[in-house]
Amino acid sequence: xxxxxxxxxxxxxRGRRHAEPPAPTRTExxxxxxxxxxxTAFRRLVYKTQVFLNHEGDLFRTRxxxxxxxAQLARSIARPLGLNEDLVEAIALAHDLGHTPFGHAxxxxxxxxxxxxxxxEHNLQSLRVVDALExxxxxxxxxxxxxxxxxxxxxxxxRRNAEQIERSEPGGVARRFLxxxxxxxxxxxxxxxxxxxxxxxxxxxxxxxxxxTLEQVAQVPLFGxxxxxxxxxxxxxxxxxxxxxxxxxxxxxxxxxxxDTTAAALQDAQPASADAARAIxxxxxxxxxARAGSAQLKSFLFxxxxxxxxxxxxxGQAKEVVRDLFERYLADPAEMQSGFAARSDTPRxxxxxxxxxxDRYALREHERLTGRRLLAGTP
Length: 379
Known about the structure:
The chain is an all-alpha fold and 379 residues long. It has one domain: Hypothetical protein af1432, CATH 1.10.3210. Helices cover 63% and strands 0% of the residues. It contains 19 helices and no strands. α3 crosses α13, α5 runs parallel beside α16 and α7 crosses α10. The radius of gyration is 21 Å and the shape is globular.
C-alpha cells in the first residue's frame, strides 16, 4: 500500500502503552484492526440500536452494520488521498464500541444517572473499552492499541475528561483537546465518513419503517437533487429501486466531494508529515455546499425521524430501562457479574456494565430485576 508523506506510517507509530514484539506478517495498524474485529465489544454491536430497536425489524441498521458502512466509506475516501487504509478501517470499526444499548436514548439516560459521578461520554467509553475493559490478554487489560488508533477512537472529549486523561497519560491521546491541535488525517477522515453513513442509512431505514416517506425526504435539496437526476435517467423507476439509486448517488457525490475538497486543502497546506498535518488544523472536510446540505438533511432527520412519536415512545421506555438498571445495580452491586461487583468505584462499574450490554440483554436484566417487561415485542 503506497501512502503519502502526510499519512500515518505504522513503522513510525508512537507505539502501544505496553511494548510488544512486532508481528511477522502484519503492520501495527493491521494488528489493531484485527484485535478490534475479534473483541467482545465489537460482536455486541450487532444487538445495539442505531435508530430502531433490534426487535423492530431484521433489516434495520445496528451499531455493527453502521460501523461496517463507515469503514467502507472511510477506505473509499482514504485510498485516493494516499492515507493509511488499515488505520482508517481500525478507527472506523472501533468508533462506536462504547455506545450504550438503545442508542442515544441509552447514552443520555446513563449520562444523567452519572451526573454526580463524572458523567458518561460514549467516545470516552470507547477508549475505556479498548484501553481497559476488554479482557483478552495475559499481560495487560484492554486491546493495547497503537496511539494513532486510540486518538481516532477518542473523537470528542470534554476538557474535564481531557485533563483527567492527561494526568495519567501526559502528552497522550487527550493532549490535543487541551492544546487545540488535530488528530492524524486518518482520524479526521472518519468524521465525514460517519456523517455520510448515517445520513444515508437513516433515510433508508426511515422510509423502510414508514415513519417518513420518499416524497418527504426528497424535499431536502441534498437528497432531492439525486431523486430528480435518477428519475431523469430512469423515468419509470419507483419504490425501493428509486430510493436505493438516489441514496447511492448521494453517497457517491458526498464521497467525491470529501475527496476533492480534502485534496485541495492538502495541496494548499503541503504537510510534510503526519505530525505536520496535525499542527495545521482540520484538513479533511466537505465543501461549503456539501456541508450545508448535509446539515439541512440532518435537521430534517432529527425533527421528522428521530423525534417521530413512535421513536420517542420507545426512547422513553429505553431510558426507563437504563435508569432502573442503574438504580438497582448501585443499590446492590452483587446483581452484576462478579468482575464489576468487586470494583471499588461502584458508580463507574455500574456505568461500564450497562454500557456494555446489548439491547436485549438489558431488557432481560430489567425484567429479572423489576418484574416488568418494557418495549413489548422484544425477544
